[in-house]
Write a structure and sequence with these properties.
1283 residues; 6-stranded mixed sheet
């Protein structure tokens, strides 16, 4: 029997369906042995176990219970309670393990008479019988569940979870589950059986929503916990009696332990009982419940924590938790996977203060717990107890939120409505194709549920399901495994009727917001603070302008395939476009901004504005940029609305507002650039942007914050000002350890102006002085004045950080006689005496007063910060904050892109609308691949008009050419720089389509050729005379004959539709087809240098002509295919086959010179270099035009006397950042930068000359090592003569 329970624990999950009945159990086990040969041992053990049990065993159990009662003096014994068994046999509490009872039964334990020995024997026999009974009961239960599985799989697949991918029922999962199969039972994995059996029990209390997340588990530790779940126990599936399935499971000791266990877990009033009650209210949420210093979860919720948050289970059971300091990180792990999290906090204890409960001790206390917040992917920040948060990364580490999405199926196409509950904004995109909607949902997975309004016809036939062609089936976005969607149907009858003055965009906003607010309100979604929110509180964004729409071409959102081929969908096989557009040092928010911009190109007016801004930053030589702060706007607004913004958050907000005002002043001298900047702010914020008004509103918000916030959080304050206004901790002149005051005051000091909480500060000051005086008298036996004069004296006062008290280790020696009676042992926080510590009544009272004053000050500071949040919210400052945040984001994005463009040599291409003089699609000058450095790339220049049929050998650059041209067109359409030379022109296109090589898609039951044809069909539906299309090697997945004919027909259709683009192919027979479009199609090829007889060389250059040699054998040999294979292929080629078949770094340590000023340095530098100097103030960025250029720079360090540093670099922005990170006098330095037109060599000469000149004139230099000699090697002599 020792092996039985172990096999049961694992074997239950591996056996197919069984027919109920112990008598026939043996036959069914034998019948199922063939598909489960690896479990023959389990089957045989189960057969033996089931055959050993009979009805006589039940009679014997009753007899044993009666006899035990007789031997125990007529008192019944609960044989499942080890405590009662121990008292009955031994008379006290002892172990009742099997080995102990066997010794007792044999009379080998002293003090036991014959009746007690008989009791031990009876208990052993009882446990043996009860183990067999429990085993058979479990076998019978498994038979019932397995039979349900067989019946379930015989039913037609009409259930929502079993429906095909073409139609989907309401409230069913929308993303196909690649782990679930409708194959016969014997083809499912044991783990799938375990999961499905949880939901087949008629008494199952677990929501069916958890089936998919459980099937998608990957970690072995998570899968092991599933074996412990019991869906009949509670909505969490947590069984308190379940034990880990380990190597010891199945032993008789384990069986006896389970047979004798009792538990009160889960009863009403217990912690587990509370969690079960709340899970019934929120079955679709993961519950985190506060328990002391931890948040705990049970059952399925605990499994999700182990799987997605990297936590460990408790003692191997389906129970897990996280410490309170890591709750946001744990929540982020869950919301990133698409889950909603219900967080419960502890309130004050409710304890009976009188009667029996008052003397019952701590166990009589009932914790009051309440729902604090439901955190969702739409608002992933946990807004609780953050006002006095001291973490510096409150905003920097915020997880990006996801929008709610509604899709409306209208006659004009799909309308996509995206709702941000954090920013309270709505973005509406009209007239979209299914492919465009699919790309948007795949790139940025929305929050569950997905709202869908079908057409009236589709709604009338809803019993057959809804056709959703826009659903993503492949994971491409930022949240690869976090797409968990269910569909919520919006009846089309609720769509608002057309009314004068109400646009279609406003109607779409109203219907989706009405549905969303009703749904979230019914679920008490406190994470979105929807209680008093109305539709009018949401700002509406339109994805495109309607003015002049008939005259201007708008670029439509990208399709999934196009976005994938251009490196926007996180495909590791394709170079990332975002990584090339922005430097690695760019903030993550700028990457998300540009990715959204490229996936959904802006209107022409917006792209032109961004182009003007980038062009200005790229070429401006004389203006440094202020430091820009790009916080997550949604989280900032959520904190302000909830009153949970901390001093650190307000400090970040000050930087945002200051940066916006400085930027407006920065562009004031360039009216056209300022207009472009304001256009971008208005487009991103949805609010009218006017420079004077925005500047004033930002200044008003700054004033409101600075009136309250401590100067310590004003980053623009100088160090001297900050030091003068520093909020100092209380001081006792070394009478009390300083760390004691720091620990009690660190949570609230330095947050607000002292004047704002003057009374609280004064109370703390007085109480700290009183405490110091009492401690000096009772613990030191002297006065503070006397002690302050002493030095190097041992402090007898010790602090207890756990109980927050100060005391002595022993009674002072200066006490004698009756004075010693004043000293007593203090009590800890639980009321127990600390027998190694001593204190006095006076110290205790003074300590209590001080702690109470600190608590009052903490509460007062918190109230002031909460009131500041309300002032900004109720005072109408939020619009200015929204616009300022978007201004910082837009400017930061444009700046970093300009820096990257200068470094890579990218340029701004011009856009145009087609005219009789400009009928070409694009004219590219010196284009090269965006992922290759310009110095290593081969540039191509060509004009594209109509269709190019491109033929070329393998590895000659066909795909690279097309991907580069498409990326250049997309970047230009969005107002960004592209890897082209100046003078390039690109027409505005309504669609940019790229179709590259593909693979099969098993989740959609599509072969590679089927997926290819689906994309081509979408292209032919949506592309026309204003479209740019690139098709690479169409027809590779089918026979050459049929592929050639199909390719010819597609080229013909593209040409007749007026599409411009490139069609690359190896199907050379297409050139022989009688197409009716040869007059509009041009033939191009990738040139190959074959002048060398030994081998050909790829040039990667585009030229006119046709290439019918694919050079497949040369390519195969180049990549290491065995020579024997190459030789055999050459032999077979003679047989005809029937046609139906960053800069340098230097360290200095010399100091010399004298006092001087920055104004004295500028004339010296300009006289030597003959260049105008550019001054970079502390913390400012250098102009973007300097990125990638050789420069020489002089640093004025923040020291007394002033010190200077001379250097040269090719990356001045990164170099200044490196110097500032040194800290100290380097952090607040001012820089003078001078461009070196002659490159790095000239910059080095200037560096040496400046070092010599400044040192000779008495400037205090931190180094003169590079001034000892002028290095003139590798430099044109004209530079030396001219300078």
């Amino acid at each position: 029997m020792k092996a039985v329970w172990s096999c049961i624990g694992s074997g239950f999950l591996f056996l197919p369906a069984m027919i109920r009945g112990v008598g026939s159990f043996r036959g069914h086990c034998a019948a199922l042995a063939r598909p489960l040969q690896e479990n023959t041992r389990v089957i045989s053990i189960l057969v033996r176990a089931s055959s050993t049990y009979s009805n006589d065993d039940e009679d014997e159990l009753l007899t044993i219970q009666r006899r035990i009662a007789q031997l125990n003096g007529g008192n019944k014994v609960n044989l499942k309670s080890p405590k009662q068994v121990s008292h009955a046999i031994f008379g006290d509490k002892r172990s009742t393990e099997k080995k102990v009872l066997e010794l007792a039964a044999k009379g080998m334990i002293a003090g036991l008479d014959t009746s007690r020995q008989e009791l031990a024997r009876l208990v052993l026999r009882y446990r043996e019988l009860i183990s067999t009974t429990s085993l058979v009961a479990r076998v019978d239960n498994f038979q019932r569940r397995s039979m349900s599985t067989a019946v379930y799989n015989s039913v037609s697949g009409s259930d929502a979870f079993e429906s095909g991918s073409d139609t989907i029922a309401e409230n069913s999962p929308l993303i196909p589950n690649e782990h679930y199969s409708t194959d016969p039972l014997d083809q499912r994995s044991p783990f799938e059986l375990a999961v499905h059996n949880l939901f087949l029990n008629k008494k199952s209390k677990v929501s069916h929503q958890w089936r998919e997340p459980l099937l998608q588990l990957r970690r072995p530790s998570s899968k092991a916990l599933v074996l412990q779940l019991d869906s009949g126990q509670c909505p969490m599936g947590f069984d308190p009696l379940a034990q880990p399935f380990d190597s010891l499971r199945g032993s008789m000791d384990t069986l006896e332990e389970e047979a004798t266990r009792t538990t009160t877990a889960g009863k009403k009033g217990s912690f587990l009982g509370f969690c079960r009650e709340q899970k019934e209210k929120y079955p679709d949420c993961v519950l985190l419940t506060r328990c002391g210093d931890f948040y705990e979860a049970f059952g399925i919720d605990a499994i999700m924590l182990v799987e997605h948050c990297g936590l460990n289970s408790m003692a191997g059971k389906a129970r897990a938790g996280c410490p309170i300091r890591n709750v946001q990180g744990t929540i982020d792990g869950l919301t990133n996977q698409g889950f909603r999290v219900a967080v419960y906090e502890e309130g004050t204890d409710t304890d009976a203060s009188s009667g029996a409960g008052a003397s019952a001790g701590a166990k009589s206390r009932i914790k009051h717990r309440f729902l604090s917040q439901i955190v969702s992917p739409a608002s992933p920040t946990y807004l609780y107890d953050l006002v006095l948060s001291g973490t510096a990364d409150t905003l920097a580490m915020a997880a990006p939120s996801r929008p709610y999405v509604g899709v409306l199926s209208l006659a004009s196409g799909y309308t996509l409505v995206e709702v941000s509950t954090e920013e309270r904004s709505v973005r509406v995109s009209e007239r979209l194709t299914a492919e465009a909607v699919a790309c948007r949902i795949a790139a940025y997975p929305p929050t569950d549920p997905l709202m869908y309004m079908p057409t009236l016809t589709e709604y009338a036939a809803k019993r057959s399901g809804y056709s959703l062609p826009f659903l993503p089936t492949r994971r491409h976005g930022e949240f690869d495994s976090g797409l968990r969607l269910r569909m919520q149907i919006i009846p089309p009858m609720l769509y608002p009727e057309a009314r004068p003055g109400v646009t279609d965009v406003e109607r779409a906003k109203d219907i989706v917001l009405t549905t969303l607010l009703r749904a979230t309100g019914s679920r008490d979604d406190t994470d979105n603070q929807q209680g008093n929110v109305a539709i009018a509180d949401y700002t509406l964004f339109e994805s495109s302008d309607t003015l002049g729409m008939e005259k201007v071409t708008y670029t439509n959102p990208l399709y999934v395939e196009t976005a994938t081929q251009l490196g926007l969908m996180n495909d590791p096989t394709i170079p990332s476009l975002i990584a090339s557009v922005l430097p690695h040092s760019a903030p993550a928010s700028t990457r998300r901004f540009l990715r959204r911009l490229l996936l959904n190109p802006p209107p022409p007016t917006v792209s032109d504005s961004l182009r003007n801004l980038v062009r200005f930053l790229k070429k401006d030589f004389h203006n440094s940029l202020p430091p820009l702060t790009v916080p997550p706007l949604g989280k900032m607004l959520s904190l302000l609305r909830a009153g949970q913004a901390s001093a650190q958050v307000f400090g970040e907000l000050l930087n945002v507002l200051h940066g916006t005002i400085t930027a407006l002043d920065f562009f004031e001298r360039e009216p056209q650039v300022l207009d472009s900047f304001l256009t971008l702010i208005q487009y991103e914020s949805g609010l009218a942007a006017d420079a004077p008004s925005l500047r004033k509103r930002c200044a008003d918000a700054i004033e409101s914050i600075q009136n309250v916030l401590s100067p310590l959080h004003h980053r623009r304050s100088s160090p001297s000002v900050m030091l003068g206004k520093a909020d100092m901790f209380s001081d006792s002149w070394k009478v009390i350890p300083q760390s004691f005051f720091e620990r009690n005051e660190a949570s609230w000091r330095g947050r607000v102006h002292e004047e704002a909480v003057a009374e609280a500060y004064h109370a703390v000051s007085e109480c700290s002085k009183k405490l110091a005086e009492v401690v000096a008298e009772d613990f030191w036996g002297s006065s503070i004045q006397s002690l302050s004069k002493l030095e190097n004296i041992r402090n007898p006062v010790v602090q207890d950080i756990f109980n927050n008290l100060i005391a002595l280790k022993e009674i002072p020696k200066f006490c004698s006689g009756s004075d010693k009676s004043r000293y007593f042992h203090p009590r800890d926080r639980n009321g127990k005496l600390l027998k190694t510590r001593y204190t006095t009544e006076a110290v205790q009272l003074a300590l209590a007063d001080y702690i109470a004053a600190c608590d009052a000050a903490c509460s007062e500071v918190s109230s002031v910060l909460v009131q500041l949040s309300r002032t900004l919210h109720d005072g109408g400052h939020l619009p200015a904050i929204v616009q300022a945040s978007h201004a910082n984001l837009v400017l930061s994005c444009a700046y970093f892109h300009a820096c990257q463009a200068n470094r890579l040599g990218w340029n701004v291409a011009e856009t145009f609308e087609p005219t009789p003089k400009k009928e070409f699609a694009l004219s590219l000058k010196g284009m090269w691949p965006y992922w290759i450095d310009k110095s290593n790339a081969v540039a191509n220049s060509f004009d594209l008009s109509g269709i190019y049929i491109l033929t070329a050998p393998n590895m000659s650059g066909k795909s690279t050419l097309m991907r580069s041209a498409a990326a250049g067109a997309l970047l230009t359409a969005c107002g960004l720089c592209a890897p082209v030379e100046c003078g390039s022109e690109i027409r505005r296109f309504d669609n940019i389509f790229v179709r590259g090589a593909s693979s099969d898609i098993p989740t959609e039951q599509k072969s590679a050729f089927g997926a290819e044809m689906g994309d081509i069909a979408a292209m032919l539906r949506c592309c026309g005379p204003k479209s740019l299309v690139f098709v690479d090697e169409l027809g590779r997945g089918t026979s050459p004959r049929e592929g050639t004919r199909l390719a010819g027909a597609i080229v013909e259709s593209m040409a007749n539709a007026g599409i411009s683009g490139i069609f690359a192919t190896h199907l050379h027979d297409i050139l022989q087809l009688p197409l009716n479009c040869w007059n509009t199609v041009a033939l191009k090829r990738m040139a190959v240098d074959e002048r060398q007889s030994s081998s050909a060389r790829w040039t990667f250059k585009l030229e006119d002509g046709v290439c019918t040699n694919s050079m497949a054998l040369e390519t195969a040999a180049h990549f290491g295919l065995p020579s024997s294979i190459i030789q055999r292929a050459q032999e077979l080629s003679y047989f005809d086959i029937p046609s139906d078949n960053a800069g340098s770094t230097k360290n200095y340590d010399i100091e010399q010179g004298s006092v001087s000023t920055l104004q004295d340095v500028v004339p010296v530098a300009e006289s030597i270099t003959q260049q105008s100097s550019i001054i970079i103030p502390p913390a400012y960025h250098p102009p973007a035009s300097l990125d990638g250029r050789s420069t020489v720079y002089i640093l004025e360090l923040d020291s007394t006397p002033r010190k200077y540093y001379v250097g040269e670099t090719d990356d001045v922005r990164s170099r200044l950042l490196q110097h500032r990170r040194k800290g100290g006098m380097w952090s607040n330095m001012t820089a003078i930068v001078l461009p070196a037109p002659g490159g790095k060599s000239q910059a080095r000469v200037w560096e040496s000359r400046l070092t010599q000149s400044l040192a000779s004139k008495g400037f205090f230099l931190v180094s003169v090592s590079d001034g000892r000699s002028i290095r003139s090697s590798n430099i044109n002599g004209s530079y030396l003569e001219a300078n």
